[in-house]
Amino acid sequence: MKKQSMNKSVGLAVSVMLASTSLLAACSSTKEGGTDSTKKPAAPMTEAGKYPVSTAETITSWEQINSNLTTFFPNLADSPFGKQLEKETGIKVKYSHPADGQSKEQFNLLIASNNLTDVIEYDWNSSYPGGPEKAIADKVILPLNELIDKHAPNLKKRLEQDKELNKMLKTDSGKYYVFPMIRPDNGLVFRGPMIRKDWLDELQLSVPSTIDEWYTVLKAFKEKKNASAPFTAQYSNELNIQDAFIGAFQTANRYYIDDQGKVKYGPVDPQFKEALTLLRKWYAEGLIDKDFALNTDSKSYDNKMLSNASGATVGLLSGGMGRWMESGKKQDPKFQLVAAPYPTLKKGERAFIGQRDFKYNPAASKAVTTAAKNPELAIRWLDYAYSEKGSMLFNFGIEGESYTMQNGKPAFTDKITKDPKYNLQQMVSQFTKPNGPFPGDSRKSFNTFKEQDEAIAIWEQTDAAKHVLPLFITPTIEESKEVAKINTAIASYKEEMFVKFVMGKEPLDKFDDYVKRIKDMGSDKVVKIYQDAYDRYNKR
């Protein structure tokens, strides 16, 4: 595969796929920057693990750009972080960024084009049909075992020291396939229900913990605060509520693991109908955002949370609660968001499921493609993030500018934390990489409010650790082909019917027909494949 510029990649992809006008428009907005990737003679490189590397070559990387960074720069290469990374590694990089909210479509176009960048940061487990084993078999990405062994001493050391992480990063056949985003132990829970505490205080209501209490609160928000969308949430191929409300019925809006360790598909559970009945009732009464399926970008979502249209959501700790508190308090000093527990049916119950990630985050990890002319150089570049100095750059930025050492611990400078115009997340995004393939540092915190510190302790009070199915289990190639075909059809139909059921466009009397159709599509086959893969993973 020849490596060309992203514009040519996407252009060819469009011609190959005869993509729709909307996708064509999406691709035309791809942002590019950095140094030209014209072939140059390779220069002798320094020893593995030593930086800066001596090379005249440029590598290319396709990855989502942090939405906070686009406030300042259109491309990662132009940011202080991008420039510092080039300086410290000695490696020039040309970045291509999909347009906000269109990464899935543009990833598919990129793969179809057969004109890939050297590295791609994306979820190779869930978003590539057939998963990493299939991506390797299709000769899209490289198996990394030998490359890591020879050219990535920093990641190799971590894998040798952390057997759990080592197990997560392999396929069942033993192939490494990405450089991982590694979450610290205190960074596994970062999303959950949140609610306007200033509204609750005004209405003399407590933070809700049960379904009935939530109903009372949302009804009060609508009737007494004139909220047009008392509860809202972001919509990204599905309503992103991390199983809040649905989990109260001992099921999930996804594949999950039950109390007996068996894989199940939640949307066909009998109790899922009860969850849909609840959401349908709330929607009909105007308690759920009537336009929730249109909240596909952060701007419309932000607007509802900051305009008093909405008083509750399920959102991120930093990118949601922290950002909204920063902006909201400028408009109204009383503006306050606090975490609410994942709701249950009965007071005092422990929530069945909620958001909880694993140490390895597939969604922000990088694979090296077969298009890479110099995969060793790409590996060297990626491995820098796992070195001591590289980790500090990725987590905290540039010493003396974005952070200083205080009593042996890194602390963000006033330049970052006290900017009069921009919030902490926006300032930090210029000097670090908020998400991506690097080891997260437990000392890093974007929290600027005590409410954020308190939120994690509230949201982690669930049994998610027992019930969330790992995203990095790896079915065999043949299994993956079947899963990809079946799940694509199921996911599309399930989400179509979810929206119709909630909005009342389909009566819930048709739930049994809906279940039958999903089972006819092959959901039971997928459950068995996932069960076998999960069992194999546990035996690695």
From TrEMBL:
InterPro entries recorded: Bact_solute-bd_prot1, SBP
Keyword Cell inner membrane part of the UniProt annotation: no
Stored PROSITE patterns: PROKAR_LIPOPROTEIN
Q: Which residues form the signal peptide?
A: 1-25
Sorted keywords for this record are:
Cell membrane, Lipoprotein, Membrane, Palmitate, Signal
The record's Pfam families line, in alphabetical order, gives:
SBP_bac_1
| Span list, region Disordered | 29-49
Entries under PANTHER family matching the protein = ARABINOSE-BINDING PROTEIN-RELATED, POLYGALACTURONAN_RHAMNOGALACTURONAN-BINDING PROTEIN YTCQ
Q: What is this protein called?
A: ABC transporter substrate-binding protein
**Source organism (scientific name):** Paenibacillus rigui
